[in-house]
Specification:
Order of helices and strands: HHEEEHEEEHHHHHH
Strand order of the largest sheet: 1-2-3-4-6-5
Radius of gyration: 24 Å
Number of helices: 9
Helix content: 40-55%
Shape: globular
Largest sheet: 6 strands, mixed
Number of strands: 6
Strand content: 15-25%
């Protein structure tokens, strides 16, 4: 098949792959290590750690699927996302994630919003979304009229880039971590002075060597492939139906339309529907 030779093997993946990232972050101690690197301090013990956690308010509202959701013993919430595809909507996407995440944290009937957890949306990017050459971009709501006055609402959004160039402004460990995310190899791990990065590499190697994870990877790839093929097939049918509708408007008989478009009688009925 056309796409078969384009698919990387599990062992070839870097942590920029959402599949590998999620599989590695299933280990809550490794996720704790990664968060500790990002924040430059030891993060409290993680008591809840879920990958591909879905947040849904209603069947009528778009749901989200978080790469990694975590809650530490201080009740701080972390949503860590991996993004390898450059998109123009990531800032607003993070806003939507924040909204649904917050909505899921309060139980009905709670009158005091001060009990809302502190939360962090963390997006790790394989590109520089903002173009300023920073390894880390941290966003907090701030008053425009009063310099230095922040809105202490407990919500923080952080964008990390593997393409940063300001190594003198962030920790060496964060730089080593982001370099390893981009190239998750023995060579890059061996150069790191960070014990946390080396533990992360051990976990990556374990995941890549796992037969169970390998089967999951193959199944996930096949599902994506068949979803794409189904979408293409449905797109072709929609195009044929649109052509058939135009032919009918021009006065052609259904028999003639079916002969030209190769549509079946059942498919022709969809035009009327």
């Amino acid at each position: 098949m056309e796409h078969e030779f384009k698919r990387k093997s599990l062992k070839e993946l870097n942590l920029t792959s959402r599949f590998l990232f999620d599989a590695v972050m299933e280990d809550k101690e490794i996720h704790q290590d990664v968060l500790s690197i990002i924040f430059g301090r030891k993060i409290s013990t993680i008591i809840q750690n879920e990958t591909e956690k879905e947040a849904r308010l209603s069947p009528l509202i778009r749901s989200i699927r978080m790469d990694v959701f975590a809650l530490d013993d201080e009740q701080t919430v972390y949503n860590t996302e991996m993004q390898d595809e450059q998109r123009s909507d990531l800032a607003r996407r993070s806003r939507y994630y924040q909204a649904l995440l917050d909505t899921s944290l309060l139980e009905p009937g709670i009158p005091n919003y001060n009990v809302l957890n502190n939360s962090y949306i963390i997006v790790i990017l394989s590109f520089d979304l903002f173009g300023y050459g920073k390894y880390q971009y941290t966003f907090l709501p701030q008053c425009q009229e009063v310099p230095g006055l922040q809105l202490e609402d407990g919500a923080t959004r952080i964008f990390l880039s593997t393409e940063g160039k300001n190594g003198d402004e962030v920790s060496e460990e964060l730089v080593e971590f982001l370099h390893y995310v981009k190239n998750s190899t023995d060579e890059v791990a061996a150069k790191s002075q960070s014990e946390r990065v080396r533990r992360l590499h051990q976990r990556v190697c374990k995941v890549k060597a796992s037969e169970e994870v390998g089967v999951r990877y193959m199944q996930a790839w096949e599902e994506r492939y068949y979803d794409r093929e189904k979408g293409r097939s449905e797109g072709k049918l929609e195009g044929k139906l649109e052509d058939a509708l135009n032919m009918r408007k021009e006065g052609l008989s259904d028999e003639m339309i079916m002969r030209i478009t190769k549509l079946t009688e059942e498919e022709m009925r969809k035009i009327t529907e």
